[in-house]
## 1
Amino acid sequence: MEPHARPDPAAAATPTPGLVANEFDGKPGLPDRFGRPLRDLRISVTDRCNFRCTYCMPAEIFGRDFAFLPHSEVLTFEEITSIARVFVELGVEKLRITGGEPLVRRDLPTLLAQLARLRTPDGREVDLTLTTNGSALKALARPLRDAGLKRVTVSLDSLDDEVFRSMNGIDFPVQRVLDGIAAAREAGFDPIKVNMVVKRGTNEESIVPMARWAREQGAILRFIEYMDVGTANGWAMDDVVTAKQIVARIDAELPLEPAQANYRGEVAERWRYKDGGGEVGVIASVSGPFCGDCTRARLSAEGKLYTCLFAAKGHDIRALLRAEGTAGATDAGLAAERDAAVRELVDRTWRARVDRYSELRTEATSHLPRVEMFAMGG
């Protein structure tokens, strides 16, 4: 059991005064300066990862002696659940568990069970999802499903074992990830989403084989343009295979046609096969920025709130949770004080949000300080 975690936290969210239906999607929510509501929270449960992917944590920089966060600085399951509850009260409908690699966090199903009991103000379950590199999914797929996880996304950058081993940085075999995907399917996750980061000169020849495999497996494949996240991956525009180029490669062999978005704010641009054999998506953060519809916030493992993947700094929520309360306050009173402080910080921060990094990206801005992706939750 996670230290200090309550096994059965209160789950019901209560309506927050001041939330009114917004023009973005017609539902009550917290708007930023551009009217974008807060709908999605990505929760990093650890900054640690067992892979050293070249586009995220290159091994030459993040070696064996790299100092990750000490355990005392990482949010407990109780703290994560408390924060998530506040976000749900403010209109968040989807919680995505990330890392680092989230499956290296001990007793993760315990946290999933707590989050699965959260309810929106109108009584609906939250959309509880998780993104993983799949390395430990074979053993954990069933416990995660039993805990209440609804959907899983697996990162897989190539079916070619040599290419995959090179990209993950630790010589990890692709078959073990495929075994994890199979275990997830057996556990009842369907459909399974698969994310593939495409980098020129590295794995673009894997685009069509991955598309064919996903069709056969009934998986939903999402291609992601190589992005300038953090400052350590040596990003250059010349290394980007654009969404248009990715679609053209697939369309030449497996004809595609555009498909409508499932909802406003969906990250991936959807394409379906003309023969009805499924769909693929492309996430074009570089060539086709979608900042105007971004509804995502990120909570790092040490409790910092980020309002953009390309942020340079975060807002400290953990300090509010661990602050001493009013003298003589009961446990319930102290919890209420801390929840109110978190709610005020989130409300104030999101309402002031003007992030548009990808839309404004230039050679100058691409070199500004940014937090590494693994440190903020991807």
## 2
Amino acid sequence: MTRALTFLLMMLMSLAPALAAVRIKDVTSLRGARDSQLIGYGLVIGLQGTGDSLRNAPFTDQALQSMLDRMGLAMRGNSLRNKNVAAVIVTADLPLGMDAGQRLDVTVSSLGDSTSLMGGTLLLTQLAGPDGQARASAQGAVTVTGFDAAGQAESVSQGVPTAGRIPNGGIVEAPMEGPVDEMRMFLELRNPDYQTAMRILDAINAYASKAYHKPIAFERDSRSVELLRPANISTPRLMSQIGELMIDPDTAARVVVDSRTGTVVIGQDVQISTVAVTHGTLNVRITETPQASQPAPLSNGKTVVTPRTQVDVNETGGQVAIVAGSSLRALVAGLNRLGVKPSGVIAILQAIKSAGALQADLVVQ
């Protein structure tokens, strides 16, 4: 870990008491109040020779002929050689409460061997929900941020030119039905935890005792809190009121490491039993410097290449440090005393976990 990262961690820990409180609506969601995912198959036209090869993508050929048949053009049996058409998969999220006629954003992704969707236009595509019924339709110009250009000896690419978006390109045709407005509701925690659930319950009942003169929240498990809605208030108003209540969420002690990027995230409640840690790195460097041996003039000799190898061995590190993490600040300070890089920190944490001294869950991604 660098000094800048350590300084940032120290600053975040010093500000933790002031930043720990969050709103209930930021850590919970009402059961049944969720978005629905839509998907559809369509065609993008108007491409500048970057479309699908109809010979390699038969589904594009079939879809194109079916579209022409619906428009009254008999093209069955003809061999098409278009390069400005691409088959795509269109996806979108349908938020709960959207009525028919409202617009939503859609994402367009190439399905065949098209190299770019830039400049294309999506034809009218039906989007179906999980129940198989058409819920929305999409059409419009595709916005692509990436590009791909190639010549005979060099190519340049940036981003992903085979995927794009159509802002407000979808229109809701049949909205999803929301949950039934019942007296009994459930708040589901995004990060299940018993302590957090109890704090939510206490905050809601403290507010309800003043506003409704009776408790309305009841414990259920670590994932949800049960609510009994008063008869004289609607569900939207109740959720708007309790959603603004502040709580201090609790989290389990956990260490998350990503060996691919060298990222290490240590939770605040992580503790390490007292252990002695040493970390060293063995570096072996082999340098090849071959030399040519030239014969003397008029000697009828041959030029010979003489190999020359130099091997250097260097072992760094090896310091022994006592690491005892009674708090996050002490743990970071103990690891920094070893002077290792993030890859070394990951190896040390895995070894400490194997030794049984890491009092937390170790998640390796």
## 3
Amino acid sequence: MFKKLATSALLIAVAATASVAGDKFSGAGASFPAPLYYDWAYKYGKETHSRVNYQSIGSGGGIKQISKRIVNFGASDKPLKSKELAKKKLLQFPAVIGSIVVAINVPGIKDAELHLKNEVVADIFAGKITKWNDAAIVADNKGLKLPNQEIIVVHRSDGSGTTYNFTYYLNKSSKNWADNYGAGKAIDWAVGIGGKGNEGVASLVKQTPYTLGYIENAYKEKNHLAAATLQTASGKWVEAKEVNFKAAAKYASWTKEDNFYAMLALQPGDTSYPIVAATFILLPIEKGEMNKKVIKFFDYAFKNGDAAAKKLGYIPLPEATKDMIRQYWATNIK
């Protein structure tokens, strides 16, 4: 029997027994949902003797590999608009909802203790705020001992859907950011050091005092990191907690006609966490038989994987959305 492989940016596979063979297919892309895909693949393999190989290489890599038909499915946290999907001859549907947190490593400061306005977060990543005891940070953290230390910014070094969603949030939070940087899978960062994948950023923050970086919440939980308390769109303080992720996720508006394109940052509501994002699966239109194998796996995950998603810090898709995705499959996969 095979054991569950460790979470990493390398191949994660669940193998069949020697006497029984199931489906075999591969995917690559986003690190954002990777811990969950590993879990789903392991359990699916145990039940069906199928082998699902997933490589956590970043959303940019996932889009490139599925566009070149190197893998059987791509995974991206940056949704593609219908025009681009048509050009690349791809289908798209969401798999799960996650959240991006601003992780910190400041000695003496615990999870949720540090409060950062959304514009302050943007100014830190833009290099306008450079010290932990800057007046703009101190103003919202009375009584918190903030050190006279340089802020070491950590960002992604690879093309990343997490980066796209995070910079989309910065873009909506700060005119300075919007005017000078914008949103993208990879940008010309003003300051900081780069880590590959959510794994790399989380590792750098964990190992390096006085750092601040953005990661998917599952990596924050796995590495026992502290995260800043941020602001809702209405300016209320909100912690990085499941109840607040769900409050934002409920505003997701999906349509089959738009290939489920949606951006979820800074949704309405006084308890809506500001950086929530869906992650998406990309399939090649022409690969009908292989696509049937891939959606069989995701349908299994939709039916059986919600508990694992919640345990790892993700938000499962609503049942109505899952049914809409099944209708999309029925229409587009023959």
